[in-house]
Amino acid sequence: MARMAMPFQLGLVSAVALLVCASPGEDAQHEIMLDSDDQCLKDDDTGTEQGAGLSLRQLRGERTSALLLKEGWGSCAAYGCGGHYHRSHGCQCNAHCKRHGNCCDDYEQRCAAPSPGSAKQAESPNQGSPAGSAVHGHPDPQKSYPTYHGFSLTLVEEFDSPLDLDSDAIWTWSDGGLSEGQVRFVKEQIQFRDGKMTITAQPNPGLDAQSCSAAEVGKVDPKPLVSGEIRTRHNLFRYGRYEVRMKAPEVQPGDPSTNGNFVSTMFVYRDAKFNHWREIDIEVTGDSSHSVTTNMLSADHTDQWSTRIASAKGLRVNHNARAGFNTYAFEWLPDSVAWFVNGVMVRKEHGGHNPPIPDLSAKIMMNLWIFGPLANFGGKAIRNNRYPMTAEYDWFRFYKWDGEKTYPCPGMSDSCLTSDDKYLSKNNPCDGQTQQGLVHGKTPCATSCQR
Hints:
The longest helix has 5 residues, at about 55-60. Strands 4, 6, 8, 9, 10, 13, 15, 20, 21, 22 and 24 form an 11-stranded mixed sheet that branches. Strands 7-14-23-16-17-18-19 form a 7-stranded antiparallel sheet, with no helix packed on it. A two-stranded antiparallel ribbon has the order 1-2. The two termini are about 30 Å apart. The chain has 6 helices and 24 strands. The protein has helices at about 55-60, 65-70, 70-75, 75-80, 95-100, 105-110, and strands spanning about 40, 55, 125-130, 135-140, 145, 150-155, 170-175, 185, 190-195, 195-205, 210-215, 220, 225, 230, 240-245, 265-270, 275-285, 290-300, 310-315, 325-335, 335-340, 345-350, 365-370, 390-400. The protein has 2 domains: about 30-110, no CATH class; about 120-410, Jelly Rolls (Sandwich). By secondary structure, it is mainly beta.
């Protein structure tokens, strides 16, 4: 939702209620209607898992109604790998599907590799170690970094020295501006001082921004505020652990308890969303000093946000997110996404439902933005806002999952990126990248670098 195209709102998705053939204890939400010959055959004699819940048609080797759905809406690309066995799915993508003979057609291709579920959950890091030569970015050579089983430290930014966002090999800035927001992102609002990165939202002091935005791949209406968004240059990152230590802004200076409106973030986002929209978010918001939103989004061929393509969950944490620094993280794996606050897992989603686990490479982004006057997300008390409003970032770390064999490219280059990875992936007028591709069949508007 850090890059959503419509105001955030919770809603109910209507669905056909189906009766079920399910083993004891299985959730009703995973149940599915079977034809008359598909009634459950209980294995009261053996009580084995293999016999539980099987239908007459399954035992006769005929295709059940669930299997008839397989071609229409079942694939590991949609479900993700692993998770629990759900009879509501036309096919399965987990360890049980071979036993029941209903693996999805792309199971071997996507899920037969060693499961990331064998790795330990990383709620508690192991003893730290210095960053090696394989760590990119700007790590502190005198610092010992936590280690996590199944993950390798790959990128560190300590923000001890300023980054040149026009020439840095990994990071750059966004010239975007969300249609529902009040800010235009400009480079000047991202600053580095006292060993930290700051992103500040404030009324525009006269900074010029072109109407065409490379990041938004289109024109952006004038905005009353400016703020910043730092992002990696390319869709270069996928499965791994993403960590940030950050302090959300105070709505009013010196007062961390007053509520207002802001969205302070760390997230991954596949740019551009017009083809494949993939996103995983940590968002600290201004509605409460204890409010954090976790979000996951996956959709194709749409640039319109809706509840059908996103899975957001608001959390109340036990710390004041504006009074000090806290560590936020998420682990993104082929079959799950787990979110952490100060080392404690606060949410986990498995594949097997909508939206599916994101499966394509993305950019790492951090930004601060203010919603429009209606304040549909980020806090209703928007009139309390006082500017400037600043979010602080102490450090960022990325640990690549050891099972990831493609991203990032060697040396953090763009050598392994496909044309799809580079589709409409320009960030700002001065990043030196060519805007490749069409938007809705048309050539996107052009920007020019004015240093």
